[in-house]
Write a structure and sequence with these properties.
It is a single chain. The protein has about 180 residues and is of the alpha+beta class. It has a domain at about 90-175: 2-Layer Sandwich (Alpha-Beta Plaits). About 40% of the residues lie in helices and about 20% in strands. Strands 1-5-2-4-3 form a five-stranded antiparallel sheet, with helices on one face. A hairpin with a 5-residue loop joins β3 and β4 (about 140-150).
Length: about 180
C-alpha cells in the first residue's frame, strides 16, 4: 500500500469517527436538570474592609529626596561636600568632639593596592574597609582603614599595633557615615 492510500484511509477513519461522536451527541435525549441556586446572603459586619491605596501608601517625598541626593553627588558618585564616594564611610581628621574613630592604615591611587592591604589586615583579624575620596583635582584616593572604634584610647592602641605589625605610618581619623 502506498503512502497516498494510507493517508486517504486514515483521513476517512478520522472523519467517520468524528461523525459518529457528533451524531451520538445530537441524538442523545438525556436532559440535564438545572436547579436555581438561592442568592448568597452576607452580613454587612462580616465583610473585611480593604483599605484604599492612599491609606496604605500615603503621599511620600521619595522623589524629592532622590533629587536632593542626586544634587549632593557628582557624576562619578562622589560627595560634592566631602569628596567621599556615596555610600562609603567618611574619614575626616578627628577633633575633640569626635565620638567614633577609625585607624587609617594607608592610602593608594591604585585600588588593587588598597584591596591587597585590606586582605592583609583582614587575614590577621582586623575589620578593614576602603573609603574612596576624590580630591579637588579629580584624583581618586583609596584609603584603607580599620574600625569603627568608640574610644580614642583603643584607636591609639590599634594604630600602634598596625604600625608595628605592618611597618606603616597609620593615623587616627574620625569615622562618620
Amino acid at each position: 500500500m502506498d503512502q497516498r492510500t494510507r493517508y486517504r484511509i486514515t483521513g476517512t477513519l478520522f472523519l467517520l469517527s468524528t461523525a459518529f461522536i457528533l451524531i451520538t451527541l445530537m441524538l442523545d435525549d438525556s436532559q440535564v436538570e438545572i436547579n436555581e441556586l438561592p442568592d448568597l446572603e452576607i452580613e454587612e459586619g462580616s465583610l473585611i474592609r480593604v483599605p484604599s491605596f492612599d491609606e496604605v501608601a500615603p503621599e511620600s517625598d521619595v522623589v524629592e529626596v532622590i533629587e536632593e541626593l542626586k544634587n549632593q553627588v557628582d557624576e562619578d558618585g562622589y560627595s560634592r561636600v566631602n569628596g567621599t564616594r556615596f555610600g562609603q564611610p567618611v574619614l575626616i581628621p578627628f577633633s575633640a568632639s569626635s565620638k567614633v574613630f577609625a585607624v587609617q592604615a594607608g592610602s593608594f591611587e591604585l585600588s588593587k593596592n588598597a584591596d591587597t592591604l585590606v586582605d592583609r589586615l583582614r587575614a590577621v583579624g582586623y575589620e578593614a574597609f576602603i573609603s574612596s575620596k576624590k580630591t579637588n583635582k579629580g584624583l581618586i584616593i583609596h584609603r584603607v582603614a580599620v574600625g569603627p572604634l568608640l574610644d580614642k584610647k583603643d584607636a591609639e592602641e590599634m594604630r600602634g599595633s598596625i604600625d608595628q605589625q605592618f611597618q606603616l605610618d597609620a593615623r587616627i581619623m574620625e569615622l562618620t557615615l
